[in-house]
Structures are given as C-alpha cells and as structure tokens.
Predict the structure.
Amino acid sequence: MNSIAKIVFGCPAKCPGCVGSLKRHGGYWWCRVCRKKWRPKALTWLKGSKLPEAQISTLLRGWQRNVSPGAMKHLTGLSYTTVERWYARFRLHLPVDSASLQGVVEVDEAFFGRKRHFNQRIVMGAIERKSGRIKLGIIPDREQDSLEGFLLRHVQTDSLLHTDCHSGYYDIGWNGYGHTLHNHSIGHFSGTNQIEGVWSVAKRQLRRMYGQIRTERLPEFLQEWEARRNFKELFNNPYSYLAVCLVPH
C-alpha cells in the first residue's frame, strides 16, 4: 500500500463509505461490500493532480530539505513554475501553531525588502528560549501599539521579555510582562542572540532558496519558517508531512 492510500484508507484499508474491506485494482480501490470505487488522491487536496505519487514525494522531500526550485527543476524534469506551485501548496497546508509563547521570550524586529524600492516590510518575531518555538508576523510600524499588539496576540502576559532599547518597548510592563532591556548600541546582544539568529538563518535560507522574494508573498514564507521551527517533525520525510497535512475531505 502506498503512503497516500495508507493515510486515507488506513491499514488495513477500509471503505470511507461503509467501512468495508478495500481491494486495490489498478489505479483505484474498490469496496468488497458496497462495490464503490475510490481513488485516494481524489479524497484529499491532491485531487486533480496528474503527477504520480513518487514524483510528489520527490518534490516534497526537496522542499523539506530546502532544495531550491531551480535545482528541483533539473532533478525532476518539471518546469520551474510547476515546482514553485507545488512548494506553495505544501506551505499552504502546514498547520498553524495557536499556542502562545511563555516563560523567557526574546523579541526583536527585522526589515525584509528594500526601502528604496518601496517594498520594505517590518517583521516582528519572538522566540521561547526553553523550547525554541517562534512566532513571526508583519507589523505596520515600530510604534508602541503595533509592538504591544503582536506581543498580546502571541506571548502570555506572565512571561519575561528580553528586547533591545527601542522606545516602543518601554511601557510593555504595564501589560503584566517582566521586561529586560539590552542596549545593542553598546554591544549588549547576549539577551537577544537567539532571535537575532532566527533572522540571520531565515534571510540566508530564503535568498538561497528563492532569490528575491516579492513582499506580497512574505506572509506565506513566514508561516513556513515558523512551522519549520515549531513542527520540526513534519520535515523529517514525506510521510511525516503527509500523515499530518494530507487531511481527507
């Protein structure tokens, strides 16, 4: 039994309609009880795909291992557009981590894009020191309201925050947070080095994978990067991803 059929039908394979026993026949499965025919891909978001499962698994493994679309194009013989479209589909079906960060949390912002091209975006990030889980999001500016809004959405108010000395952070203690400031201008980086490392690795990997990213697509790449840190098990192999993300209709 292939991976998709195993995920959709179970093992041993059971009919989605009557829970009768299924038997494979060519490209489909038929039920010994109700006699209905089933195609496993047609019951998932893979419906309509003409690629064989082996090729989908190759694309998925390449995406998991950060193989660029250009390199994957040469490995699979598919077009660059097709590879990029499949990478986008894999990102789209990643789970969302709804749990807030807590404990000791490092917070910082980074700029993506170029100001002179009028496409620069401010991304705010937070990392939970104990677990390494992160939260990322685009904010409109670095004013206090924007910074506090992000923190209240993603970090529990009994947490201890480590930030730089930007003025927008000065009053966040009023929300219940513990707060430690680190003055980067005099070389105090140790309190925020984990979140600084997130920016360094993320930007380098995004450039290597995709070159220049259009800022309108930045949210989906931030979601992917967040998932790579918070759901590491989904990137072990194709089956680990499909078992969680290939939810039958």
